[in-house]
Amino acid sequence: MKIEFAPLNIPLRRRLQTAAVLQWIFSFLALAQCCLAGFVLLALSDWWLLALLYAGWLWLDWDTPTSGGRRSGWIRSWMVWEYFRDYFPLRLIKTVDLDPKKNYIFGFHPHGVLVAGAFGNFCTEATGFSRLFPGLTPHLLMLPFWFRVPLFRDYIMSGGTRLSVCPPVCHVHVLQTADWTLDEDRHPDWTLDKDRQKGFIKLALKHGAQLVPVFSFGENELFDQMENPTGSPLRRLQVRGPHGNHSSKPYNQPATTVPIPVTQTPSPSRDDIESLHKVYMQSLTDLFEEHKHTYGLDEHQHLTFI
């Protein structure tokens, strides 16, 4: 294994950007485990009463992730997120105005290894979501397990994440499955599974929420993925746990999110779901084709669906 050290003449601002990204990676991969271990150690120490009091608070606060969460404008506006944004850099491109009186479900493509674009654009104010879309309150959906981890749950909710079965004012819904993420490399063929995930379509129809497809250009280029063919020991380990890669930090690539609205139908019948899904996938394709040249893709690269 070869270890390379950064040159001493790297500007301080660049070092701060790298530090911001590394703390973000740590929060995704290890912070939950550290919070759980800290809570257990506190419970076994002379300060066990504090752990007991927090456990009582946790019991009273158990349903908060499903009833709006508990966001913090102060934490969302931390300067560390500006350094995080500038490392890649991240940008949120607004293509249309969204009526703040309506509800929206944002479909985020592609997932990426650690969902850098979705986190930076919708869990922080670094890219100016509130300024670009005044009156809308974004929430990033996460798996239920993370909201059961003591202390960690409070941290992730502060950015606007939540667990919900109903669309809030603005949802970011991660559409891809784990297998799609594990197959990513730095030369993707932009293949999406169009049939596995249609629950968000039914949700939009049921609640009258407008669908907004989002494509994060550069998301797949942020990390190198180790060779992990189906059936390999690494692939089995990744399926059971966090997705691994051999890069210590993301590549410095653009990860731009470009939302557009999709007209939805009011009835959640099967035909309506299929019809709206086709409209959504076509809108996503149009979005990709319209902006791909801006982000270094050539004319022969297209979205394909299986």
Automatic annotation (TrEMBL):
Name where it mostly resides: endoplasmic reticulum
Which segments show compositional bias classed as Polar residues?
245-268
Q: Which UniProt keywords apply?
A: Acyltransferase, Endoplasmic reticulum, Lipid biosynthesis, Lipid metabolism, Membrane, Transferase, Transmembrane, Transmembrane helix
- Is Transmembrane among this UniProt entry's keywords? yes
> Which Gene Ontology cellular component annotation is one that this UniProt entry carries?
endoplasmic reticulum membrane
Q: Where is the signal peptide?
A: none
Compartments annotated for it: namely:
Endoplasmic reticulum membrane
Supply the EC number(s).
2.3.1.-
Enumerate the residue ranges of region (Disordered).
228-270
Would the keyword Acyltransferase be found if you checked this record's keyword annotation?
A: yes
**A single BP term in Gene Ontology:** triglyceride biosynthetic process
Q: Which InterPro entries match?
A: DAGAT
Q: Where are the transmembrane segments?
A: 21-41
This entry's Gene Ontology molecular function terms read: diacylglycerol O-acyltransferase activity
Membrane-protein topology:
Multi-pass membrane protein
Provide the family line. Belongs to the diacylglycerol acyltransferase family.
Recorded protein name is Acyltransferase
